[in-house]
From TrEMBL:
GO molecular function: GTP binding
Similarity field: Belongs to the TRAFAC class TrmE-Era-EngA-EngB-Septin-like GTPase superfamily. AIG1/Toc34/Toc159-like paraseptin GTPase family. IAN subfamily.
Record-annotated membrane-spanning stretches: 89-107
AIG1-type G domain sequence ranges: 11-108
Name this polypeptide is given: AIG1-type G domain-containing protein
Pfam family, one: AIG1
Top-level lineage group: Eukaryota
Endpoints of the signal sequence: none
Gene source species: Sinocyclocheilus anshuiensis
Keyword annotations from UniProtKB, A to Z: GTP-binding, Membrane, Nucleotide-binding, Transmembrane, Transmembrane helix
Transmembrane helix in keyword set: yes
């Protein structure tokens, strides 16, 4: 079962970060939110995001940035490598950018 959590704070642009296990639907969720195929999603566990990817769009006139992260259980990369990639993104998110409007965590 996929659980989705939302944290809402004030900002101009919505920034959505997708976290979750490999195959949990992060790419599909990003594509659904943006209403386009910004992230590759082919329903196969063998094809997964290896590095953080960013896509942008507009929802009702508001700019939205979606950041997709590698699966937390990514095969072929160590847990340390995946953790480092995500921590790098979190530092960028919270240290160098204004506060995010929404952060979505997908845990599957």
């Amino acid at each position: 079962m996929i659980k989705t959590y939302f944290m809402i704070v004030a900002a101009e642009e919505w920034r959505i970060m997708l976290l979750g296990a490999r195959g949990s639907g992060k790419s599909s969720t990003g594509n659904t939110v943006l209403r386009c195929n910004a992230f590759q999603s082919d329903m196969q566990l063998s094809r997964v995001t290896q590095f953080c990817e960013r896509a942008t769009g507009n929802i009702n006139g508001r700019p939205v940035a979606i950041i997709e992260t590698p699966g937390l259980n990514r095969i072929g990369r160590t847990e340390r490598e995946v953790t480092r990639e995500i921590l790098k993104l979190l530092m960028y998110f919270f240290c160098f950018l204004p506060l995010s409007k929404i952060i979505v965590f997908i845990v599957g």
